[in-house]
Fold these 3 entries.
Entry 1:
Amino acid sequence: MRVSTRSRPARTLGVGTIALSVSLGLLTGGLGTPQSASAATSSSAVATTQVFPQTSATLSQSGITVQAAASKAAKSKAAANRIMTEAAKHKGKKYRFGAAGPKRFDCSGYTMYVYKKAAGKKLPHKANLQQRYGKAVAKSQARPGDLIIIRSGTRGTHAGIYAGGGKMWAAPRTGKTVTKQKIWTKNYVVRRLV
């Protein structure tokens, strides 16, 4: 193998790079004996400096991406748990048209109140308007804490909070109280707010 003898500017290696290079045998002489850090200007050391930091940066960036995704998922799950806890607190409170809590609720007033109190999310006081908020999610991907909007055609007519198992927390109608009820129709949409 022919080694170029052209002069190159000296590069500074960090202690971690030298230690890793030595442990990987990249800064070796004759029979595999590690050389001192002064060998940093040799061809193999320069090549190591050019390649290793890029690999290190890539690993660091992907590690940060994975950590960020895990952190976001954990925050989302915690927010969904707060929503479910808040939704259940109001079990048994009476329905009243136009009411938005905390003593009485209509359906959209209930979802509006729970999302604001538990997750700081602002929703309008109409089921039809609430269906425009959050991220659309397939019914098969619904998670507890997601917003459910029952529809007539494409118009939202009833709102609730998905509780899992095909049920939702809702303030159903006059004469009823906040309860966990079965989603009785297939004409509904799921919106994820957290």
Entry 2:
Amino acid sequence: MDENRDKIDNEMNKNEEIKENEQKINNDCNCGCEHCGPDGCSEEDCKECDNDCRCKDKNENKDANENVGASAASPETEKDELTLANEKIKDWEDKYKRLLAEFDNFRKRSEKESAMMIDIGASMILTKILPIVDNFERAINSIPEDIKENSFVDGVDKIYKQMLKTFEDLGVKPIEAVGKPFDANLHNAVMTDENAEGEVDTVVEELQKGYMYKDQVLRHSMVKVKK
């Protein structure tokens, strides 16, 4: 009888162990495949198992977490990248400002050079016209008094005045000479007169009229100076 009792106890103990193992397996894995041993599934077993394993999910979650951790940048890294981006932006802004300043200087220089070229060209043309104006003046000054009322003379005088008006509109004006102190920048002294009335180094006579074009001398006045 004792033997039978011992056998029964052994069988009960075995059943308890089997239940514990099954419980352990169920705790670790729910696939119930042949790869699951008494100690549950291992990673190698689950690689060969087509069923849903808890440990497989756990491994996948672990891999996903590792990937997320690898892809997520640390605050220090993000700060370094932001600093680098700001430095690049500042560098491009500096380059843009320098380029804009250089272009503005180039534009101003080009406009100034263009204006100078226009003035040089205008000066050359006006200088060639001045002898024609001189001839008009000589012709008008040589007209006898008795024919000054002649219509032809009046027409010549009007043409002369029209030329002077055109010169004035272009920025050309006569240089004042007679009675003014001699100025080598404006006057060209070709004669002197010690007996002439007036102060010393004063222009007493204008032999040829001089002209200014804007701020430059188009032609110096040819004058006689008191010495």
Entry 3:
Amino acid sequence: MSELSFLQLVRADIEATTHPNFRNYSNRRFWLRAIAKLVITPAVRVVVMYRISHVLAGKGLLPVALLIRARGIRVSGAELHPQATVGPGLYLPHSIGAGFGAYTTIGANCTLQAGAAVGPQPHGADERLYTTVGDNVYIGLHAVIIAGVTIGDGAVIGANAVVMRDVDPYTVIAASPGRVVAKRPEDSRAS
């Protein structure tokens, strides 16, 4: 897969927040709706702010990127670190308290609910641990995925789950500590 442009990433993020009939809209109508979402919805705004700060961090302008991140926290309550790598289609239905750290890679079409935390470093860790979240993953309200864990494609992390071990693809995790409660068909999308 080739690298997506900034506008393609933003479009994918906004499409994730839009009814599935978005493909029926003309390009002009889509962008008019997108601008309206940016003005009205803090959760959409913070994702776009993350995309801008990620580009700036990649160009060596981390202090400016961190200022944009700070503004995003004030605007929406979500803390999205600009050094994290996130695929297209990031969706924050409710942004308050959602966040991911610098040492995080998140795949395409992922949903983070309010209070979900991805990649907090364990207390006393000697080195930075990296967290990887696959494509089409749903992370529920107040779920925590501790750093150093890999979440497979299509997994569902339930509300209030604390994930401290790797999760296989298409697995449903619940409870604290997180336990496997079901397997999903591979052709389903987490949403």
